[in-house]
Amino acid sequence: MEEKTPILSVRNLNVKFSLRGKVLHAIRDVSLDLYKGETLAIVGESGSGKSVLTKTFMGLLDQNGWIDSGSILFQGKDLAKYKTEKEWLTIRGGEIAMVLQDPMTSLNPLKTIGAQIREALMLHRSMNKSQAYQRTIELLNDVGIPDPVRRIRQYPHEFSGGMRQRVVIAIALACNPQILICDEPTTALDVTIQAQILHLIRDLVKKYALTTVYITHDLGVVANVADRVAVMYAGDIVEIGTSREVFYDARHPYTWALLSSLPQLGHRGEKLFSIQGTPPNLYAEIKGDAFAPRNPHALKIDFERRPPLFQVSPTHWARTWLLHPDAPSLDPPEVLQRLRQEEWQ
Amino acid sequence: MSEQPILSVRDLKVDFGSHRKPFHAVRGVSFDVFRGETFGLVGESGSGKTTIGRAIIRIYEAAGGEILFRGQRISGRISKDLDREVTRKIQMIFQDPMASLNERAKVDYIVAEGLYNTDRRLTQEQRRQKVEQALLDVGLLPEFASRFPHEFSGGQRQRIGIARALIMQPEFIVADEPISALDVSIRAQVLNLMAELQKERGLTYLFISHDLSVMRFICDRIAVIHKGLLMELADTETLFRHPLHPYTQALLSAVPMPSPDLRQDEPPVLYDESMHDYSVHLPVWCEIEPGHFVRGSEPELEAYRKIIAEG
Ligand SMILES: Nc1ncnc2c1ncn2[C@@H]1O[C@H](COP(=O)(O)OP(=O)(O)OP(=O)(O)O)[C@@H](O)[C@H]1O
Ligand SMILES: [Mg+2]
């Protein structure tokens, strides 16, 4: 296997928000390496911290949030220390670009899409007008927008939801970023459109040699885009590994539970597996393994001490006491074997 | 299935917009739903699936065709008594529990709202008891009655939405994307609850969704709708294993499977309406084999018959 170089390294990151006098601990001591050229998917339930984590890479935390400790190393600099907008502008859009769920939040309804792409081009890459025009047409071709010469003069509302998302991707690419962060880019789209956008993103990742972070709560999407998968729970990465390791050889009870509750693993007329209880309150201090209160197999130590990350393979880690040599052995739920079933197709 | 359907939709048409410039949202749709089954209606946004659901609960008027409930016509002008009965017996559960619940009303009012409209003779005490029972039925505590919706999680809010439907003792529930806004783990809870209630009370569901992967595991039969027309209807296994219509095939191939080894590497199959040549032979809605309906022109149907014969 070729040696992998991290392009971005997060170390012991803690992010907090203050809300009505109380402090919420949204990211709890997360470490993560992003490797050049890979697509890393981050999965987890609503509120687990997927968006907050990646927002710290671009200085986009809401006003009431801050990096409490930790570092984010990128190109020899620690982004966690960035303070001013001026510093962030060297990163945002240029080195790291983002595609969000709702394309309308990223587009200006009053400007033609051609003008918006051109702006991004001229801002981040010194191009003259005619070069920018040529490049805009190329980009629209690359993201699969037919008839770009005509489309360039149209406004966002003249595009369908799927086409708008393609425009947003074109704007992101205009900045020639190293890292592309996609936060639920297809969640609001129809399945057939989603399939096209996923395919497009995979093509572009190759063509532009992008490193991609793909945030989603949809495990079907994860299986279709990711090289590696990070599972988040209550502000922490509880398991990380290659896509196959996480889907077929998961080790953390939360990953088991998440996979087991997929409706696709159910049989009609039988009960689906469901996780009991609710995620922990991030305003309160979390002791031990955050998933312990909902984990029917929790050990005593799970309630007392936070487990370290245990290494399962050179590419696979999980934060669970079950991997401690002295822990009782526990088999993953049987239904997970259905994940491999061929008869789906 | 020789029994009489609980609900029949016959050549239903629904229009929006002005008379001058109507938009045909539903363009002639027919299907039967039988008692105790879960009938799925799957389609993409704007396909008309929600419109059909709303026409059934009489929010939208039919521009053509009719809807029969237990053999009685419930579309168009109907008697006050029948209207009251339909309002009770057919209930709807909505996609976004947050948006569908009145944020400023307490849970007890939200759950009991339907009773105020159909059963004015109930005393306050009787109503309170019914609310309590409905909350218990969906696994919520009776104490929740005095709280506001924003104090609940998404899954709990969807349960409140279900309690609100159950209190009417319905026979037929139109569930419009009831789990789309929920997290995977919460989805399973809501689906289990719906299945349990169906078993206990013999409820019939019309389950409207864009998510085929979920439908496969809860629907007995599925109808595929595209631009206001049904493309195909079959029992779930047949539809998944032997889809005939190219639109059904495109839809199925687009569903991402949660298993990396089944990853789709080829570009997704696209459906292009212009592939059908309907200039000479008009398409019809045809029962191509028992219980399996598909839309197509005579030459297309001939080709489908061949595929079926070859197994
Ligand atoms: N501006 C803010 N003020 C207070 N709390 C916040 C703020 N932004 C995020 N949070 C909290 O931080 C935690 C992580 O939120 P985040 O948006 O990262 O979740 P997510 O995993 O992206 O969820 P979703 O799937 O719903 O997008 C949540 O508990 C959230 O409520
Ligand atoms: Mg998010």
Overall pLDDT score of chain A: 92
Helix and strand content put the structural class of chain A at: alpha/beta
The amount of helix of chain B comes to 25-40%
Residue runs with pLDDT of under 50 for 5 or more positions of chain B: none
Largest interface summary: A-B, 47 and 42 residues
Number of strands of chain B: 12
CATH class of the largest domain in chain B: Alpha Beta
| Uncertain stretches of chain A | none
What CATH calls the topology of the largest domain in chain B is Rossmann fold
- Our count of helices of chain B gives 11
Query: How far apart lie the N and C ends of chain A?
Result: 31 Å
- How big a fraction of the residues of chain A is strand? 15-25%
Our Rg estimate of chain B from Cα atoms comes to 21 Å
- Main-sheet strand order of chain B equals 6-7-8-3-9-10-12-11
Structural class of chain B: alpha/beta
Characteristic terms for this protein:
heterodimer; A: 345 residues; alpha/beta; 8-stranded mixed β-sheet; 4-stranded antiparallel β-sheet; 12 strands; 28% helix; globular; B: 311 residues; Rossmann fold; 11 helices; 36% helix; binds adenosine-5'-triphosphate; binds magnesium ion
